[in-house]
Amino acid sequence: QVQVVESGGGLVQAGGSLRLSCTDSGRTFSSYGMGWLRQAPGKEREFVAAITWSGGTPYYSDSVKGRFTISRDNAKNTVYLQMNSLKPEDTAVYYCAAHARSAYTSRWYEEEYEYDYWGQGTQVTVSS
């Protein structure tokens, strides 16, 4: 059973950095495409970054490209989101999600409906 758990959120000043982590206690992540999405207050959830099961070239939204880095360590069953040069508009609840319906696919997933398992979310607040 897949149980997605995020950690690493918090309060940071603009220009600062945070690293989010996402683990699966069921030890099944290694074959799944993974993604990070976020939801700001009063807004719809939006795509942030995605990575294939093998950790190949990641994919980012234009709003975070060049500032955020998604990576994974399959030996540790963990996916990371390194966030640098944070801006107040990055304030949101960040969700880690797993595309589990098809394993070992070399593609990214942007849409919410493409993800099967979600974490509870971790709050990131960037102060100006």
Task: Characterize the structure shown.
The chain has 128 residues and is an all-beta fold. The chain is 0% helix and 45% strand. The chain has strands at residues 4-7, 10-13, 18-24, 33-39, 46-51, 59-60, 68-73, 78-83, 92-99, 117-118, 122-127. Strands 2, 4, 5, 6, 9, 10 and 11 form a 7-stranded mixed β-sheet that branches. Strands 1-3-8-7 form a 4-stranded antiparallel β-sheet, with no helix packed on it. The protein is globular, with a radius of gyration of 13 Å. The termini are far apart.
Quick description:
By secondary structure, the chain is mainly beta.
Number of helices: 0
Number of strands: 11
What string, H for helix and E for strand, traces the elements in order?
EEEEEEEEEEE
Structural class: mainly beta
Strand content: over 45%
Oligomeric composition of the shown chains: single chain
The main pleated sheet reads as: 7 strands, mixed
* Distance between the amino and carboxyl termini: 40 Å
Q: Which outline best applies? A: globular
Low-confidence stretches: none
Rg, Cα atoms, Å: 13 Å
> Fraction of residues in helices?
under 10%
Mean pLDDT score: 94
